[in-house]
Amino acid sequence: MFPAGSPSHTFRRLSLLRLLLLLLLQALGRGLGRASPAGGPLEDVVIERYHVPRSCPREVQMGDFVRYHYNGTFEDGKKFDSSYDRSTLVAIVVGVGRLITGMDRGLMGMCVNERRRLIVPPHLGYGSIGVAGLIPPDATLYFDVVLLDVWNKADTVQVSILLRPPHCPRMVQDTDFVRYHYNGTLLDGTTFDTSYSRNHTYNTYIGQGYIIPGMDQGLQGVCIGERRRITVPPHLAYGENGTGDKIPGSAVLIFDVHVIDFHNPADPVEIKTLSRPPESCNETSKLGDFIRYHYNCSLLDGTRLFSSHDFGAPQEATLGANKVIEGLDTGLQGMCVGERRQLVVPPHLAHGESGARGVPGSAVLLFEVELVSREDGLPTGYLFVWHKDPPASLFEDMDLNKDGEVPPEEFSSFIKAQVNEGKGRLMPGQDPEKTIGDMFQNQDRNQDGKITAEELKLKSDEDQERVHEEL
């Protein structure tokens, strides 16, 4: 649309007082228009609302910034101007004299996606002068208008909660890291972006300036699993310039958001005991213990990831041996056999920003675990420990055929006998044959396939600070 006073579009201005008076008169009979008696010249703009959207949460008011398309024709249907030909929306403030008076009035009360035909009499258009070479004097103008956007510089972020889960123990606040899906549209419903098309959540810190200010504000106080609509005016989005080829300048943006999870980098593992065994529990799991446990693992939105039940056997791990993620290792400590827990593990104690196979990056994990069994572990570096002092004549007892040397078969038979008689134990959770084989290799110092009395040494002889003794 032509700005008032420009050479190509000399829209006449009325005084603000007169404009207000005429707008008030129009409000009394808006949508009908008026003609003078006996079919004389039009006194005011005629407004034909030939498409009105079902939902109209907001109507254009004086001082609003609008974006719209239009076709301008004369009474005979000849086109004199069109925003479509320029592939550019009109973007302008309404009701402050920047448009011809007839257009100013015709846009008032309009809804986004509404279509109107405006019949503008000459005295509300270009009057008796017209526009040289384009609009003749005393021309009645016909405009077909569709409104695509409206906002005001006083607008703030609008948040509509579409779905909030009944249980919301924690809400997003500054410095939290949020993972969410979104659909982004303009006010007319045109999609400009969606995370769903990438099959990946949008992940960001809140309140740190990583996203547009309107989204920073709109995500405050959201719950995990919540769905909300965030309407962001352009001065809290991408401003007058827009961004890329999908978001035009001065565009209001609507985000339909679904929050998958969030956490804070300072979060510890959250541990909740679901049940304990009825009998008393004198010993609990600790660092170094070999444990067996069942688990179910999911995302906070309920997406199932893994379960030990799928393999038909408990998971095995030695606590503190870096065999499981740090948060799970922490959550499995201090448990009684038969106890069930729920663990919420933040990503910095799980698989981090990169994620893992089947686990999205920066994902908070939810575990339900049950401790099935527990065995005391061995000190670091030990493969076997004696429960009491080792035999004084260790080599002689090990040399079963008394030939002065111990081959692998004799060594293995001796160690297994000590375990069966309860005199010592091997490292739990490992293949006994492999463990015994490793022990033999450690003692066969010249690697000739047999152990002599000179080669055989207790672990305590090599590492005096150790309390336990090991072959």
Could you write a compact summary of the structure shown?
Residues 63-151, 175-263, 288-375 form the PPIase FKBP-type domain. This protein is an alpha+beta fold and 471 residues long.
Fold and architecture overview:
With 471 residues, the protein is of the alpha+beta class. The chain folds into four domains: 106 residues, Chitinase A, domain 3 (Roll); 106 residues, Chitinase A, domain 3 (Roll); 106 residues, Chitinase A, domain 3 (Roll), CATH 3.10.50; 87 residues, Recoverin, domain 1 (Orthogonal Bundle). The protein is 15% helix and 27% strand. The protein contains nine helices and 20 strands. The strands form four sheets. Strands 1, 2, 3, 4, 5 and 6 form a six-stranded antiparallel beta sheet that branches. A hairpin with a 4-residue loop joins strand 14 and strand 15. The radius of gyration is 39 Å and the shape is rod-shaped. The N terminus and C terminus are likely disordered. It is found in: Endoplasmic reticulum lumen. It holds the Pfam family EF-hand_5. GO terms for molecular function: calcium ion binding; peptidyl-prolyl cis-trans isomerase activity. Its EC number is 5.2.1.8. Its main location: endoplasmic reticulum.
